[in-house]
Amino acid sequence: MAPPAGTIRPGRYLAFFILIVVVLYGLVFFTGDREPSPRLGIDLKGGTSVTLTARTPDGSEPTQESLDQARAIIAERVNGLGVSGAEVVLDGRQLVITVPGDEGQEAKTLGQTAKLGFRKVIAGPFDPAAAKQQPGQDGGDGSGDKPGKSGDNGAAKPGDAEQDGATSDTGSGGGGAAGAAPAKAQGDDQVSAQDDDSSLPEETRKEIAQAKQVRQNKDLLGAGPEAQQALQQALQEIDCSEGTKDPLRGNDDPDLPLLACDQDRQSNDKRLAYLLGPVILDGQQVGDSTASVNSDGVGYQVNITFTGEGNSRWAQITSELARESAQSPGNPARVAFVLDTEVVSAPTVTTAIAGNTRITGDFTQAEAQDLAQILKYGSLPLSFETSDASTVSATLGLSSLRAGLIAGAIGFALIVLYSLAYYRLLGVLLIASLGLTAALVFPVIILLGRSVGFTLDIAGIAGLIIAIGVTADSFVVYFERIKDEIRGGRSVRSAIPRAWVRSRRTILSADGVVLLAAVVLYLLAVGSVKGFAFTIGLTTVLDLVIVFMVTHPMLVMAGKWKILNNRALSGLGMVTDVGAAAQRSKRQSGPAAARGV
């Protein structure tokens, strides 16, 4: 004879569950770093988080291949920071960089990893603010501007591009228009077809078109009044103030001249501008760059190694620039390293360079390291803008973790009190099931952190706290169905299997809805909301494991205990009375029906 529906062998289920728990904890303690703690997000243990959003010149969706390549290059640069635990995650068209601890300030500069090019300095540096105040002038700052990395007092720090073992002289700034590389012939409009792409907002397209017409005007490479007028107009158009977004970033034409801002502020808190020729060497031809102490003087220097093709091209360029410097000793030629339309450095070139190159100047160690990393990792297939950058101290992270744990403890305590007050002995089973759920969630989170890099953040903890209620709901559905069966006149022992058959569909439906919502939220969300969705979905799945493999088997075993018939302890006293009354009513109605009453 087949057993009634819902009847199981509870010992097998509990033994299999215990085996699962033993395996999980065995993996925690005997594999990986054997550290029995989950990976915490930076909002819990402190660190720096930077979110970079990819952008293309025409506003179209970047290809997956270019995003993967950009992620690999930026990850290489993050690893170059020398901190452990840093990671770069691709999230749609965004790159999320997280650096734990107190060493992640440099991560905020990683958004500069975009389009790098070498351009000849035609003239400058200029003070755009002075040009706006004095229309009709050429905009030059008029001071004896020293070549190199921008410095104080509207001038520049001394800096030369040198070959190892060679020394080049330092001259004064400016540079003339002679010897500039010719630009591609274009009309006065100078707006490429990509600027008409309707995927970009109309206002943005107009800004890009206007900036190209003025700051990349081919007349800037000419001579005479037209060139002066074009330069004056460009200086009045450009905005080098701190925090200003350049519309040409990622949209400049490498074959045209460019009026670009210096990346560094001067002592009076202003930035200067340079008039540059077309790109003469692409940044992707830089093989390696490092920072080191200047062996010939004070401060630090940046050492550059080009690729094979880049090395021969660089030798040709520096040979031409060296000849120009020899012809004008007081005004040596200069080359600018331009990153996303900003001049990173503009050293003089007084000797032909073949092989390893170094940039010397009044660099601090941090400045030299930043420039070396920009030169090494600067060329990416995409431009990026920093969408979000935040730093959380270790103290604040510890406070967030403590607050999350306290909130979870309070939520659990309230459920315990309610369960004991309302369900009594059944409440004890509910509490035990919640404890086993936590015992199952803990190693799973640790192992996910080791295998797929899952980090538990404050949003994830919020998901775990909410999951306590979701898990308790499954038990409430089951317990209330047991009460319904007892109200119908059944004993506790016979009510449990019948209640399980009728309640499990409701439990599956409810958990299925929560899981579906978590999956949709995870797919559509960004940032820390993904952690919230992930923990909700994970705990929902584990809730089903606990209900099917622990809660139901435990209730089947408890149904054989006489203590569940104790009205004061079982929590079933009132429904038992109702069930007994129903049974008496059935027994009394049986003889009456037989007599024809």
Strand order of the largest sheet: 4-7-6-11-10
List the uncertain runs.
Answer: 136-199
Looking at how many chains there are and whether they match, the oligomeric state comes to single chain
**Whole-number radius of gyration?**
36 Å
H/E topology pattern: HHEHEEEHEHHEEEEHEEEHEHHHHHHH
The level of helicity is: 40-55%
Count of helix runs: 15
Mean pLDDT: 74
Backbone structural class: alpha+beta
Account of the 3D structure:
48% of the residues lie in helices and 16% in strands. By secondary structure, the chain is an alpha+beta fold. It has 3 domains: 10-38 and 393-588, Multidrug efflux transporter AcrB transmembrane domain (Multidrug efflux transporter AcrB transmembrane fold), CATH 1.20.1640.10; 42-108, 2-Layer Sandwich (Alpha-Beta Plaits), CATH 3.30.70; 115-181 and 196-378, no CATH class. Strand 10 (335-339) and strand 11 (342-345) form a beta hairpin. Helix 1 (10-30) runs parallel beside helix 10 (425-452). Residues 136-199 have low confidence and may be disordered.
